[in-house]
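Hi there. Long-time user, first ticket. I'm pasting a complex I've been working with (about 998 residues overall). I'd like to know whether the download I got is complete or cut off, because the file seemed smaller than I expected. Thanks.
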Amino acid sequence: MTTPTDTLVPFAVAIERYEPLMGLETHVELGTRTKMFCGCITTFGAEPNSQVCPVCLGLPGSLPVVNRMAIEYAIRIGLALNCSIATWCRFARKNYFYPDMPKNFQISQYDEPLCTDGWLDIQVEGATIRVGIERVHLEEDTGKSLHVGGATGRIHGADYSLVDYNRAGIPLVEIVTKPIEGTGANAPEVARIYVTELRDLLRSLRVSDVRMEEGSLRCDVNTSLSPRGSGVWGTRTETKNVNSLRSVERAVRFEIERQAAVLDAGGRVILQTRHFHEDAGTTTSGRSKEEAQDYRYFPEPDLVPVAPSREWVEQVRAELPELPAARWTRLQAEWALSEGDMTALRNAGAFEKVAETVAAGASPSDARKWWLGELARRANEAGTDLAGLSIKPAEVARVAELVVQGALNDQLARQVLDRVLAGEGTPDEVVAARGLAVVSDEGALTAAVEAAIAANPDVAAKIRDGKLAAAGVLVGAVMKATRGKADGTRVRELILEHLT
Amino acid sequence: MELTRMTAAELIAALARSEVSATEVTQAHLDRITAVDDRVHAFLHVDADSALAQAAEVDGKRRAGAVLGPLAGVPVAVKDVFTTVGLPTTCGSRILDGWHPPYDATITQRLKQAGAIIIGKTNLDEFAMGSSTENSAFGPSHNPWDLAKIPGGSSGGSAAAVAAYEAPLAIGTDTGGSIRQPAAVCGIVGTKPTYGGSSRYGVVAFASSLDTPGPFGRTVLDTALLHEAISGYDPMDSTSIDAPVPPVVAAAREADVSGMRIGVVTDLSGDGYQPGVLSRFAEAVELLESLGAKVTEVSCPHFKYALPAYYLIAPSEVSSNLARFDAMRYGLRVGDDGTRDAEEVMALTREAGFGAEVKRRIILGTYALSSGYYDAYYGKAQQVRTLIIRDFDAAFRQVDVLVSPASPTTAFPIGERADNPMAMYLADLCTIPSDLAGNAAISVPCGLAPEDGLPVGLQVMAPALADDRLYQVAAAVEAALVGRWGQPLLSQAKGLDA
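Hi, the file is complete. Here it is re-exported in full:
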């Protein structure tokens, strides 16, 4: 069933010969307080089978009732993705047998989804790419199986299986893109950025905690190749288990390399589900879709149709929070930054940090200076990214404020940041504990300047001869003597007063 | 008077006056069950202790002067598709043998709130699929008019229990006629309320878009009393209608058809109808005219497609609804010996646990919904359903109610149609249109067929949420006929006399 090592074609070579086509299906667990069709609560990580009732266990005789809040969340998502919201739609049953599915059918939507035909604009290498959204629909999640024993962790070969139905019936939204074409070598990156921006959008809508590692955001990636110039789309594969942003990119890249090898060898890509393996970055074949499942969809007779009134939809639209794209445009204007500056911030992963630092009171230029300069350098040294630094944006804002007030100079500020990063406390605690403050006592400064002149007669002579650039040496000596606490500008002034 | 011979209305009055206690009433019915149910086999489960405990509670409350529900102290038999805490729920199937549900159906709860005594769970065709109770995994029930005959189905146990005086009232479900046809062939009254008028929560689903719980009684008024007690909006059932319950009890008491426009459905007669059924039906129509109703003939041209459409829609829903019986969480489990995987255990369990008719419908429905056939079968059947609804709409623009025989024949011998599904399906020829349209219908006794001396039912059909009209017409017919006969029709049932 699984090939241990697939033949691959180097990515660049594959892209020369084939144009990739992608489609992404993203499942998002909604953060509603209760489940899709019953009143059970949805807290993650509870004792197995403690958040269940006759309805989500699918006991004989039980009936589903739609959670209005889940409909509202889905409408919110649809509106944010520029979709049309159906005036009338129905749920449908998707029939198949699996032990973690209590009713052996999943209540989903089929040919009458709640939201259709929208788009999401994403930024890839400074350009905007519009990803079409085919549909956004609602469904219920299944239970979660744990297959114990056996080599694969799948049901086949397991000694026994445990099922937790806490997840059964949690509302899921499925967001399906239209085919994404024309991305060429950028395809893997486009896939990753789409999911990233979709995640940010969903987070801003406050409809889900969008944690890929907890499975509240899950992604299936469809990939196919078209021989360049042929105009014919190839057979697609659907890669499941893609559970991190990086994996989305790797899964697409791997499938392009693998499918190119199959096609180069004169083979045929098989319509199938493939599983992504985080560790190896590879996919292996799962169920073949050609021999597969006829889900026998039909309208769910236990539920009346959903017909959201236009008043409701407009109210949801009016209450939408500021979306990431609009916020981006607004902040760019407020910060008076160029498109290039903004892109640099995004690429450095500094956009949110700067936004939060500004929100905490720093000027946009100071916030940008510290995050892109000193802190980026520290992160780089530590082998991490800005998100991996332990300092809070509010702490950076406080350091910037101390500099503006003149209590710290840049050199002292860097020391404070170091100490905060080292876990010595907040900026104010570090300043107090380490006595890091600019020396502003004129008498003490004058004494230090005179001492420096006395200790460096040659340099003093040069300055007296008009070589003012040499003053830097004396400034350095004063700074060293005061352990960096002196105000450099004032020190320079004092030196020149003494020698000219 | 013998307690088991009293109507529910009479029992309610006697209980209210403390002339009799709920315990005495319950004990009398338990005794009757003990005396006759080995021959009738109306019940699958009777828990005498629990029934008597419920009765004692009612008696205690009455002594304490508490406010009691409208059915306080009246025994009710419940079809074994309703979930009941404390009593098993098997649906007449091996696959649920021994299942004790952890929750009560909404109607079970409403019966308890009304003070009714749930005296037992009644036999049925497996998962309510059938017209004779012969499809029960636990053996058929017998018609109290003639024990060699079927009591109808699928709610045959409920109908037989009421006709055999084992309970004054019973609850059934009607998906294609499963209340009205047993009522007709047992000579009692049975109503299929408007779809959505009575909650399906806790009714183990057969065909969700059709299943309708409803009441049985020996009189029209009794049936209305039970109808009122179980009906009304239920937030646990999405298809439940949030509207006031039609005034069925008032209508049953009014029993006036003068000036009412009644349409005879010409399409529900002719070939395949037993002559005695047609003659009794014709007499009932004449009677209604004599009582002041304006009778006209109405054609519903698409009713002839109702049966085939039903046998695509209902099995399609069955194929999905019954998928949950997979041995994983409850009920029967076969073949789990440590060597077989989950799929094999599911298959072996379903093979052993379901009877032939259930399997037939699962396969039919699976086929009808499958890719490539959906449009031709399920899709087309839904279009037919729309045409039938339009036939009703057109008819109800001309008349207030429609009438027809409730079933083409009287009770047939046990075994006669057991191996002929098509012949069995024809028993529901007259009742299916109302199920497909979701409107309301009743069967009320209108005499005995001369050729076999077995009861014939008159079906009255009314628009959705006009259930009260059913009772108005049925009560008028009942009053006139009982007046003519000098006694209730059921008094002539002699099956248990031997």
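A couple of notes from our side: The mean pLDDT of chain B is 97. Chain B touches chain A through 46 residues (CB under 8 Å).
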